[in-house]
Amino acid sequence: MSGALSSDEADDGLGTAAAGETIARTDAHIALIGSLAVARALPQRKRRTIGAWCFLDHFGPAKVVEGDDPQLGPHPHIGLHTVTWLYDGEALHKDSLGSEQAIRPGQLNIMTAGHGIAHAEDMLWNTSSRTVHGLQLWIAQPHATRNSSSTFAHHASLPSSAHNDLDVTVLVGEVGATESPARVDSALVGADIVARGAGLVPLDASFEHGVFVVEGSAIVNGNDVATNQLLYLPPGHTSVDISSSDGAPARLMLLGGIPFGEQLFMWWNFVGRTKDEIDDAQRSWNSDDGRFGRVESRLSRIAAPTPIWH
Ligand code: MN
User: Fold this and answer.
1) How far is residue 149 CA from its own chain's centroid?
2) Ligand 1 centroid to 111 CA: how many Å?
3) Ligand 1: centre distance to CA 195 (Å)
4) Which residue of 45, 73, 88, 152 sits 20 to 30 Å from the alpha carbon of 297, by its own alpha carbon?
5) Domain limits at 180?
6) What is the pLDDT of residues 91-137, one digit of tens each?
7) Collapsing DSSP states into helix, strand and coil, what is residue 129?
8) CA–centroid distance, residue 80 to ligand 1 (Å)
């Protein structure tokens, strides 16, 4: 559940964040999903990717009511995996492969777009908490797989491990000896962390990492990191020291990977390399030429806007 990139977030060159720099952005509002507040942590002007992770939206927590439930009608993707992770509520995924899958907190939906897929996402309002809260992430596919066929996978349970007062659940990749079964196309890691105190999480020193605070506040390698802030760690760290602060538990998402060596061009819901590729995808979707297939959904199809370079 997330909006697409708006025109001022489309790629216009790379910047760099300094080691240990906190990149913060809060309260980004995505009109596409009604009144739901979304904080977009990636991409940022100073930091476009962390490993192959190229998009991170934090939506909610928000109460939803019938008739105002956040929903995103059928829309296309190319060249990326979408990763959906919920903290509260429930969502229904439908895609052009015919997949129909409910997702609940602690479960992982990972959809591989390859040459093209379309999907719809519906946050269900009629759950006991009537709250929606989660992350929508994208992983850029490397050149070797980005034009291949699309796939969808649901992982109902994921491996976890305790590191002192930290509970770590591995979405993709591995943390120490704990390895996720989910597909990855490049070396990367994504892990949910609940901090009830302090602990040390082992890292792959060849990776760059980002630590994003979802709830509460934390001290990460000596840096104060508040809700909706992302702390960047360059390659070279063999572990990260995390503790909750303010006497309350904190919830974090650890992202990492080998710095992505390919120059991306991201626009709307497309991850490509050139404007021509984006133009082709935009035309295919709007003319419904069959490249993206059909999604059986009660929601209306979202038209691609005209690229800003036209
Ligand atoms: Mn999507």
Assistant:
1) 21
2) 9
3) 30
4) 88
5) 20-287
6) 999 999 999 999 999 999 999 999 999 999 987 776 777 888 999 99
7) coil
8) 10
